[in-house]
Amino acid sequence: MWYSSDWKEYELLDAANGQRLERWGKYVFVRPDPQAVWGEKSNNPLWKKADGRYNRSNSGGGQWQFFKDLPESWTITQDNYRFKIKPMNFKHMGLFPEQLVNWQWADKLIRSAGRPISVLNLFAYTGGATVAASCAGASVCHVDASKGIVAHAKDNAQLTDIADRPIRYIVDDCMKFVQREIRRGRKYDAIIMAPPSYGRGPGGEVWKIETELFGFVEQCAEVLSDNPLFVLLNSYTTGLSAATMGNVLTLTVGKKFGGEATADEIGIPMKDKGLILPCGSSARWVMK
Q1: For residues 73 and 122, what is the distance between their CA atoms, to the nearest angstrom?
Q2: Strands 74-78 and 81-85: what pairing?
Q3: Is residue 49 very low, low, confident or very high in pLDDT (cuts 50, 70, 90)?
């Protein structure tokens, strides 16, 4: 398993009974997590003294419950990155901390490439990977269908002091954007993507990962340069195994360019239990 253990201002304290206990900077929250199927919470008193909790609704969705006055948002720092943290809809906090291990991996590849690298970040959310790639020296095209989420990504770039770096922000359906890039003949040296299980584009376009992923990655291979550096595919869908995603990269990007695909689960260590909480899977392709 690839896991993110280097965080300084984020901490997964415990997870049990379908919930996780986390510290985001100086604030502590309880959020649902379907992977924490085991019982026996730790004796950590913060389970009962958290600053906020996301409560699931029996009819779907849920809402935040706060136990003290909190700022609308605050900042956490990791390495050279700075991120705006904010309790959001659907239990999100504006960042997926398990992705740090992938950001660090991409950072090393970009820095060691010895040439200018252009990165296409698809389903880019609030831009953690955009920040990492830009800090490593790459130019980045950041694409997400949500205008508000793209604005959040711009805030993260501003906080990290990279707002003047070459980053293009595009609010668009990722599949349609890639199709237009193919027609325009535009190429990228690396692609990062984290497609959702299900989603709708700004024009109502429907995305279902099980039926759309393979064809989409095939199209993404068409916008890679003649000397691509890497492709990173992330999934939060438990129905898609790491091996499945690795096969997708092998049969698309690997078929076109050669290279090697590897895949594994990703996760975050739990401080109180000494275990690792699974948080989805990633597949990585590199040119050898």
Answers
A1: 25
A2: antiparallel
A3: very high
